[in-house]
Specification:
- There is one protein chain.
- By secondary structure, the protein is an alpha+beta fold.
- Helices cover 32% and strands 44% of the residues.
- The protein has one domain: START domain (Alpha-D-Glucose-1,6-Bisphosphate, Chain A, domain 4, 2-Layer Sandwich), CATH 3.30.530.
- The chain is built from four helices and seven strands, in the order βααββββββαα.
- A seven-stranded antiparallel sheet has the order 1-7-6-5-4-3-2.
- α1 (13-21) crosses α4 (126-150).
- The radius of gyration is 15 Å and the shape is globular.
Amino acid sequence: MKIRVDGVAQASPDAAFGAAIDIASWPRFISAIDGVEILTPGAVATGTRFRETRKMFGKSATEEMTVAEVEPPRRFRLTAFSHGTDYTAEHIFAPEAAGTRITLTFEARPAALLSRIFAPLGWLSLSAVRRQLASDLADLAREAERLHRSV
C-alpha cells in the first residue's frame, strides 16, 4: 500500500523542513500525536530513533521509528517495522511560488507471511489513512507558516 498526499505551506523550505524535523515538538502541533519519546541522544539525524504515540482508528498506538535519511532542507525519510510490516514515510520539501510544496509519501510493505496474507485487508483502511496523513500534513503546514512569520 502506497499513499501520497501534497500540500503547500506559505513558508520557506527551511521553515517547513525545520517544523517537520523537530520530532520532539510534533505533539504540540500535530493533532493526532499524543506523545513522542526521543530514544537517541543529540540532534535529530540519520539513525535517530523515537517512539510516537498517536490516535489511530480511535485507539492509542505507539510505534518505534528511525530517521533513515536526512537531506536538509529538501527531504527526510522515516522507517518502522511493526506487526510484520515495513513502513516508510518520506517528506519532500520543494519551493513553490511564495511557499513550499510538502509531499508526504507513506508506504506499507508486508514482510512476514501472516502480514502478506492479511495485506488485502489494509486496502479497506486506505481512505482513513489518507485522511489522517492529509490532516498531519495540514497541521505541519500551519506550524511551518507560524515559524516563517516568527523569523
